[in-house]
Amino acid sequence: MYSDQTAYWMTIEVDSTRESRPLPYLGAVAIVAVTVALAFLAHRLMPHASLSLLFLTGVLIVAARTGVGPSLLASLLSFLAFNFFFTRPYYTLKVAAESDVVTLLFFLLIAAITGNLAARMRREMTRRKASLNRLSGLYEFNRRLSSAAGTEAVLEALASHLQQSLERSIAVLIADAEGRLQPRAKAGEFRAPPKTAVDTAWTGKSLEPIEIEQWTFLPLATSNEPVGLIAISGGLDEEQTDSVRSVSEQAGIALDRTRLVADLEQARVVSETEQLRSALLSSVSHDLRTPLASIIGSTTSLLEYGDSFSEANRTELLATVVDEAQRLDRHIQNLLDMTRLGQGSLPLKRDWVDVHDIVASAVERLSNALKGLTIDIEIPPSAPLLWVHGVLIEQALVNLLDNAARFSPAGGHIGIDVSSDEARIFIALCDEGPGIPEAEREKIFDMFYTVRRGDRGDLQGTGLGLAICRGMIGAHNGTVTAHAGKDGRGTCMRIALPVTRPDEVNKA
Amino acid sequence: MSESPGTILVVEDEAQIRRFLRISLEAHGYAVEEARLGEDGLKLCADVDPQLVVLDLGLPDMDGQDFILRLREWSRVPIIVLSVRASEMEKVQALDSGANDYVTKPFGIGELMARIRVVLRGHEGATSTPTVYESAGLRVDLAQREVSVDGEPVHLSKKEYELLHLLTDHPGQVLTHQQILREVWGPAQQDATHYLRVLVGQLRQKLGDDPTRPRFIVTVQGVGYRLAVAAP
User: Are A495 and A478 in contact (CB under 8 A)?
Assistant: First the structure.
């Protein structure tokens, strides 16, 4: 029930900053030594009694900086040094004057009082510093929680915060979909909590901390349910338990929040998919049914009343059937292409293709739709061969041409201009249609854009054509963009494809 | 229709398609035999010895490619393949296996009729080798190795001439890249479509052919080339 997923572990270096013990005592000795040296220099200039003040200053310095022990040592040493060097008889430890005994007592007394005071002051300072550390740790923890984007970040923040504040090994375990605990974050010099202890703690479902086998386990819960455990090496006192509990509550709230965000994202994706699906359905039913309506209408008219129709009318109706059936075929092709593109599984069968051929066969395929329009094709003889999947590029061009034909006024011009530079070949296709407002020139490549706009007007098409065009060009690392037409009239669609040199292609 | 120009075997599983093919083909004087399955089709081929086979590649009982290979084991009867779009690989494969041409579904009957005429004409012509090809202003004198367009002589390089010769051998019929590469460059260069594109470009230029509205050499995207023929 407990598997080690080392990938999740993050480690935090614990550096011991404790002072080593003998240092303050050495300091005390050193300060006394310095005082003796100063006293030798000063003792010709000042009265004998005043020298004791010099030593007292030394003792005070030691007391203020360290604790009772070093200051007592400093006062004892000061007294002995004072006695040895500066009281008669010199260089003995004998005390001649009673006043010097009093000095000794003063030394000891002052050392005890100031040492004690200084030690209390230091304790207080240390505590302040610790609480400041805790506060800033909590603040940092809160900051990390509120910016945590996902569950993982929350758990890592929790583990590292507990490690820093308790200086223990921490593991955070979260139940997976099957209710089994998985370690998801850890901090400290990690020792894995024993499996059996974890299982006992988890199955107990206790809300109180439990201590099993030198580990303390606390539940981690969101507002709905317990979701996992916090494992801390060693026992906890009451204060620590309280602080861990409040931290784990905050983590629980943060987990709630990240789960909510994930749910919302999921819901947004689902609703977008739904939107697309319904757009697809309405587009399919509209675009497949419209030509079918014409076909069924025309053919039933011919079957029922064909005898009474003039020859010209019969031919016209039959021509309608052919046109509409071909339109239906194009729509179906679009839907198929879209599906292939959407699956991301469009296999590119690249080969050398002459851009003349692509343009020629695209124009040829649309010869019906282009009837009555003038097509001007400009291709420089220097245009390089394309290393592409020809049928796909042709289809992309057909879709652009189809659009251009639909929006062109009767008798209009459509220009197809090919140009190239070192790196790219450009195919520009310009019509004299109504043009596309600048704000919409990107959106028209969205799937079903014409449908989403609601008002289809006299537009025909699935709204798929341009999306497919972009998909197919994009699959060749090319781009297709819409621009204003020449002289501000109409639209220019511009395809750019990378140029490949024959020696770059290693066709095995 | 007393004098039949020949029998056409239609191997197709869709009854509606068989029906309109039968009506149109019979209206053009052909006798029509129908088969719904590939096995039946192969048997009928042996029984009635048709002049041409129209074959749907998507048969319920066997792969159309296998049909072609099995038929080609013992018969050289021309085959026209019916294939859906977006599968140019399938078409190329069928052509390389021995099909003579293809029509993409959905198709207009006029297109199929034109293909049938071209294939039948080419097949009949195969027995008596003509020494001059002439169509739509293009004249190729195979004996003299002379080429002219609208009466103007054109000088071609050896490879250009070989390519043109190959196309005039199958006027109106599509030839795959592989077939052309094999014939003109030899089997070692079968992947060198780059050379082929360049050669076609040069040949078109010398023939004064506008590549965006080709008069002679028509590109069949993803498949190959065909020599355009004047409508009869």
Answer: yes
